Automatic annotation (TrEMBL):
GO BP of this protein: methylation; regulation of mitochondrial ATP synthesis coupled proton transport
Name of the protein described by the UniProt record: ATP synthase subunit C lysine N-methyltransferase-like
Gene Ontology cellular component list: mitochondrion
Keyword set, alphabetical order: Methyltransferase, S-adenosyl-L-methionine, Transferase
Gene symbol of the encoding locus: LOC105902625
Organism from which the protein derives: Clupea harengus (Atlantic herring)
Top-level taxon in the UniProt lineage: Eukaryota
Length: 243
């Protein structure tokens, strides 16, 4: 376990304690090494460029097909907060061009994607369970004097939230949860919705289009989703073998 006073970065000696004090959040007494996250913010004379803070990532409820031990499942499904790069953010926004309706960012982190989507005219809701990231995101919105009717950051687990009113959903989560996320999105999103995911594609859906390459690549999926071509081929081969 690591005391929060020890969490500093090579670029700046600021500790997490100072950040929590700035945000007026009571600090945790201890955090583990694997719960530390790296928060990037444009450098200003009064703010460090890199700040380590802890994150508890939301994870889907256990099902008959997932481990019953919630601690084990959390270890498999959680991911340290890694903010999307500028290029990733631009690629996501590119795949949202020409669309309208409400937008939800599942695990909104420091709010950068929400702010970008707002600049395109979307009414946005960010779901984030970490209080530090939540306060940081809200502070960014206040600094820009954006009305709460345009952007909301909710301290709410999106796994326990009905997403049926959102026509646009953005996702940057760990691969371990993407299969269960498919089930949730399929059952809740309206027929005209679009899902845009960063870095890790949905395993069983065929993307409508993509943008970027390598680690900057993002994928768009239009509802209702189409199965991956590889899955369709596999199913066809299996049916032929049974005949």
């Amino acid at each position: 376990m690591l005391n929060t006073q020890q969490l500093t970065t090579p670029e700046h000696p600021t500790t997490i304690t100072n950040i929590l004090n700035i945000l007026n959040i009571q600090q945790p007494t201890q955090i583990s090494h694997n719960s530390a996250i790296l928060l990037h913010e444009p450098t200003t004379p009064s703010s460090p460029s890199n700040i380590l803070i802890p994150r508890q990532h939301p994870h889907p409820p256990a099902t008959s097909s997932s481990p019953s031990n919630s601690f084990i499942y959390q270890e498999q499904s959680s991911v340290p907060f890694l903010p999307s790069s500028e290029q990733q953010t631009q690629n996501v926004l590119k795949l949202l061009e020409g669309r309208a309706g409400l937008l939800a960012d599942l695990g909104s982190g420091d709010g950068r994607l929400i702010l970008g989507a707002h600049s395109m005219g979307f009414q946005c809701t960010g779901f984030e369970v970490n209080p530090v990231l939540l306060a940081y995101s809200r502070a960014r919105v206040r600094r820009r004097a954006i009305p709460p009717t345009h952007i909301r950051f909710l301290n709410q687990d999106f796994w326990k939230t009905d997403l049926s009113k959102y026509q646009n959903v953005t996702v940057f989560l760990a691969p371990a949860v993407m299969g269960q996320l498919e089930q949730k999105l399929r059952s809740e999103l309206p027929a005209n919705a679009r899902v845009v995911v960063c870095r890790f594609p949905l395993p069983d859906w065929q993307p409508s289009c993509s943008q970027g390459v390598g680690q900057e690549q993002v994928w768009a999926y239009d509802m209702p989703p189409q199965p991956c071509e590889r899955n369709t081929t596999t199913a066809g081969d299996a049916s032929q073998s049974q005949v």
